[in-house]
Amino acid sequence: MSDSSEWDGRTYYASPQLKPAPFSYGLVGSYVFLAGLSGAAQLLATMLDLDCGRAAEATVRRGRFLSLLAPSLGTLCLILDLHTPQRFYNMLRVVKTTSPMSLGSWALVGFSGASTVTAVMQFVSDHGWGLSWVRHLARVMQIPAALTGGFLATYTASLFSATSTPRWASGGEGLAVKFAAASVASAAAAMQIGERSNRRARDLNSIAIAALAVELAATLHTDQAQRQAGIRVSPSTADRLGVTLPLSLFLVSQLLPGRARRLSTVASVAALAGSLAMRIGVMRQGVESAARPAISMRFAQPDNLPDRHGVAARGSDRRVSNV
Amino acid sequence: MDIGARALDRSDLDAVIPDEAELTAGVRIRPGRSYGFFTDTTLCIGCKACEVACKEWNNLPAETPQLTGHSYDNTGSLSASTWRHVRFIEQSVRADSQTPYQSGWLMMSDVCKHCHNAPCVEACPTGALFRTEFDTVVVQQDICNGCGYCVPACPFGVVDISTLDGKAHKCTLCYDRLKGGLEPACAKSCPTNSIQFGEVEELQRRAQERLEHLHRVDVTSAYLYGTPDAPGATGGLEHLNAFFLLTAPPETYNLPRAPTRPANRVAPTLAAGLTAVAALAAAALAIFARRD
After folding, report:
1. Whole-complex ipTM
2. Is A18 touching B (CB cutoff 8 A)?
């Protein structure tokens, strides 16, 4: 019994113990990025509309139009990633609270409806075709759109985390905060591009800075949680650069009033690119960790079991390790 | 059972033998009860009859022929078209620790575990994966849209998407055979009774007896994998309907020692993410409201 009580690091001829997610990095990574960007853009536009109303209409309009990216391009990416795309509608057969993919499908449907109505009403009122109720309808529909948008900004982290893939399953809370912050940062960045009002641009820069700082902190926290789970994490320069570069550019542009506009546009583009690259990077790291048995076996050791019952759970851990 | 199936195996039968599993496995298959496999690896001789019987019955295509080069295991892994897979582990044996002429090989026929809290079922967004009336887990091929979410959800690397038809496939515990009162093909074909089919509670009792016997005859390394509170049934999975008797650490057989139930991570991660979104939205509300 002694030889089986501890794992000695050996694997089954180094063959994978898990099957990696059969997701396309490009398609699903793009969806995660677009869903986050659209959801958070709707959220920011709603906050701005609640604060400033018509005074901020140009920025609100950009936010509302940006939120059409998830219903259109994002949904297309999701459907194309299915291995039987002609049955995409089966996603709406059931509601399952144990499946973030099911919850996300429904949230995407809700968001698509609400944000499309909001954007169309915005368009109609812009062209002066409508009566005053058109504007009011947009202001009412932006509320459910913002709520579902907030969900879209972060649920994809839960989707990844609720799997057996080691680098997604460990440090899931950190990943959720990271995705939430990255979504808000990318939305603020996208809305900032082409902003004419100095004040609004500065506000959006501040939001982007706050969100990128949260993203950076969440990244460090997630890496730490994964190291604690026994997974070796070596942060790549590109990973770090995707946050630190736009963050420092935004900070500099906030401090330099003269050239600020052009610099913050550069910062916005860097933030958008960094956000997309981060999602694709998370997917790639997850898939690689699932394919490597040394990582998945280490992750599936008793010391990583959830400690839900305090001391009692530790006791059952011990029983498991003494096989 | 006193009479073997052979007693009724006559060529002039014009219909299937009703409740044939009573003859071959000593169990009458009834909806509403839990069925599973007890795979006793100490009895496995690595003949791969289970792999062949499974392919035959389920009409599964062959894998591309290849030699792995590491053992007699040239199947490699469970996949969309391979639902039983025999692993061969060559152990480095020392003369003083091994009976002369004793084999140094461990063999194990792996299969879908039909988990009590099946992560694939919990992940499936279409409801294609479901729990049958026999407490087994099956993919409904006419509903699956190949989203692939069940693949990373499985803690055992069982479920796979077929590149041929774009749907998820895995062991059905011979759902069609169970409906017809037949024992699953792999268990029926196993010549050493390493694969035993039956009601889960009865199998667990039988496994405990076997374990006690092995411990009595000094095979102290033997233990159960996938019974309640044992390795493999950790982290909220409760128990595996297809469980194993092993004699080496689980990792040796490419099995995780302490897998977890992925659905347990949904609520905490959603709470953390939504809190972050709410906090940043509040920050945005405050920033936009500032007066110059």
Report:
1. 0.93
2. yes
